[in-house]
Structure formats: structure tokens, C-alpha cells
Amino acid sequence: MSMIEFSNEEKAIIVNKIKLYFRDELEQDIGQFEAEFLLDFFAEEIGTFFYNRGLYDAQAILEQRLESITDAIYELEKPTPFSR
């Protein structure tokens, strides 16, 4: 898997959220550099866990939809003397 990268706009939003979290929840002001450093750390060290969870969730949804499509196809099947 390649490194998780964000656009400049996404990165600015995420960094701002990190700064706000530190201010509001931890009562600490951190600068732009520190917030970007934290974002890079989480993207490198923890991002793959979130990425993989997203893949697992997508796979589960796909399996559910495929099962639903398979059921719909069986419902369309016409009876014949031939049995499988």
C-alpha cells in the first residue's frame, strides 16, 4: 500500500481540526507545524488500520449486495423439468 496522502485542502482542514481538538479538549494551543507533524504520524502509523477497516466494511457491503442480486436472479428463474 502506498502512503496515505491528502490534498492541500484536505490537509488544511484536518490540521485545523487537530488544533481545535487540542485547544478545546486538552486546553493546549499547538502550532501549525506540530499539528502537521501529528497528522503525518497518524497517517504513517495508524492510517493503515483505518484504511483496512474501510476495505473490510466495503467488502461486507459488496457481499451483501451480491447475495441480494443472486437471490433476485433465482427469483426470475422459470421452472423447467431440468434440475441442477
Task: Describe the protein.
This is DUF2164 domain-containing protein. InterPro entries: DUF2164 (IPR018680). The protein has two domains: 1-45; 48-77. It has helices at 8-26, 32-45, 47-76. The chain is built from three helices and no strands. Helix 1 (8-26) crosses helix 2.
SSE map:
Layout: H1 8-26, H2 32-45, H3 47-76
Helix pairs in contact: 1-2
Count of folded domains = 2
Q: Report the helical percentage.
A: over 70%
> Could you tell me the radius of gyration in angstroms?
23 Å
SS-derived structural category: mainly alpha
Pfam families: DUF2164 (PF09932)
Protein name: DUF2164 domain-containing protein
Give a brief description.
This is DUF2164 domain-containing protein. The protein contains 3 helices and no strands.
List keywords for this structure.
84 residues, single chain, 0% strand, DUF2164 domain-containing protein, 3 helices, 2 domains, DUF2164
